[in-house]
Amino acid sequence: MKKPFDLYPNELLPSGFQYPESLKKIAAHGAFQEIIPWWFYNVQNGGLAYKLRESDGRNLVPFAKCDDDDNDIACFDGDDIGGNPKVLIKNHFDKFDYPGRRYSYADFDEWYEAAQAYARRLRGQ
User: Fold this and answer.
1) CB 66 within 8 A of CB 37
2) 91/78 Cα distance (integer angstroms)
3) CA atoms within 13 A on the CB side of 91
4) For 18, which DSSP code?
């Protein structure tokens, strides 16, 4: 059963950064389409993820992780303060040479659609 989860509080976020409304609704209600192997970070157990924020010189706000062979981490661009930030994918192995892979999405909704499609492919649907 999916449950609501907590996002990082404003005091831990980059100045002016805002989560997209669609993610805030998902977090508040725990109502979302299955995206396994992706899962959303809960601030209650996501302290380690938060340490990734500036690990490679980018102002990242991690929000989801993929438990597959790549172990990707989906992060918002913390410098985007427009309320619908770009999604950047941080590869666990920092390899950016996989043909056909995407390393960014225009916004959360585009990433979420891609995560759902990936989950369906893995389930054979």
Assistant:
1) yes
2) 17
3) 12
4) -
Could you tell me the strand order of the sheet in which 60-66 lies?
38-40, 60-66, 73-77, 87-90, 104-105
Q: Are 4 and 28 in contact (CB under 8 A)?
A: yes
Q: Is 51 exposed, middle or buried (0-12, 13-18, 19+ CB in 10 A)?
A: exposed
Q: How far apart are the C-alpha atoms of 1 and 114, rounded to whole Å? A: 22
Please tell me whether the peptide bond between 37 and the residue prior to it is cis, using omega within 30 degrees of 0: yes
| Per-residue pLDDT tens over the stretch 81-116 | 999 999 998 876 555 555 556 789 999 999 999 999
Give the residue carrying structure tokens 């609704």: 25
User: In the structure encoding, which two tokens stand for residue 80, read together?
Assistant: 């985007």
